[in-house]
Amino acid sequence: MPDRKPPPGEPMFWRGVAWGVRALLVAVHLLFALPALLRPNIPLLFVGYAKFDDVMPFAYWGLASLLAAFLLWLIPTRLPWGLLTTLFSATVFFSIGATFYLGAGLLPGTALFFGFGFAAGALFTRSLWLYAIRVRWFQKHVLEKGVKGG
């Protein structure tokens, strides 16, 4: 069996971790989207969710989360559109967390969704770095010259 070597600076372990984080984010997006789409009257039933309807209809929250899940799963993160998809995922998570906080001060929900937002942000940062090191201008002006310009 030939020895498969990862690209320089990226051990296979971290590729697996990134894939696992991406799969987790997709699952969480789906777990938020499905109840929001199937039961859009949840903000009328639970006080903690009432602020969601004040921002936009609850079904739209579900659609945004569903869109983020599908885009995150279908588009590779190291492409420019994949970077935007990962950033959109982080934005959806931070928005959900902020709305939980504004709604009823639900700190566990706020902390959970902010944590997922930070995970999506970390995935975005990793993907941005792995994209940038392949760009010729970045290699020439940043990697070769260093921070102080040479």
General description of the model:
The chain has 150 residues and is mostly helical. It has helices at residues 12-38, 42-45, 50-55, 58-74, 80-104, 107-132, 136-143. Helix 1 packs antiparallel against helix 4 (58-74). The longest helix has 27 residues, at 12-38. The mean pLDDT is 86.
Tell me the layout of helices and strands.
Blueprint: H1 12-38, H2 42-45, H3 50-55, H4 58-74, H5 80-104, H6 107-132, H7 136-143
Instruction: Tell me the fraction of residues in β-strands, as a range.
Output: under 5%
Span between N and C termini?
Answer: 43 Å
Query: Count of helices?
Result: 7
Overall spatial form: elongated
Overall structural class, as computed from helix and strand content, comes to mainly alpha
Helix content: over 70%
The average pLDDT is 86
Name the poorly predicted regions: none
